[in-house]
Amino acid sequence: MAAELTPLAISVLALLKEEPMHAYEMYQLLVKRHHHWLVKVRPGSLYHTVERLARQNYVRATGTERAGNRPERTTYELTPEGDAALTRRVETGIEEYVHEYPLFPVVLSEAHNLEPEDAVLRFRRRIADLENWIREIDEALADAEAREVPQVYWIGGTYLRTQLTAERDWLATTIERIESKDLEWQPRNNP
């Protein structure tokens, strides 16, 4: 069923839609293309995902090779069922909003437990971190554009940049509101 495809499984199927490859090659390509900014990918989790997709008949092994002293590497290809599952998941993932539960809104909702000066300090540190991420994304996007990679292939990067920029700007405004006392900050007393 398409709904059970994880973000990493979607990425694996999409790579195999391009061409058959082995799992380590998939990992290297995801990192090279900066997809590790969009999908949490580790070699172990990638191998596990490929094995699960093979059990679901979404991918199949096409051969095993060994180069020198390296371990054997199994090459996989996308099956018609995998192609259909990928298409369905992309379609539903685009059109249906799914509420996700990231950590930041949770800790932000509890920031009132900090003194206002401490909260502002930590917000400023987060802004600096966000600016580093935005700079890295800008460099990657500029590189893709310079290599004339069609924008449709890096649209996820522009979306991520927009999200990070909006968060940075919101935090900057929140700091201004705290410092101007427009946002009344009253830390809870600990019992």
Automatic annotation (TrEMBL):
Gene3D superfamilies: Winged helix-like DNA-binding domain superfamily/Winged helix DNA-binding domain (1.10.10.10). This is PadR family transcriptional regulator. Residues 12-87 form the Transcription regulator PadR N-terminal domain.
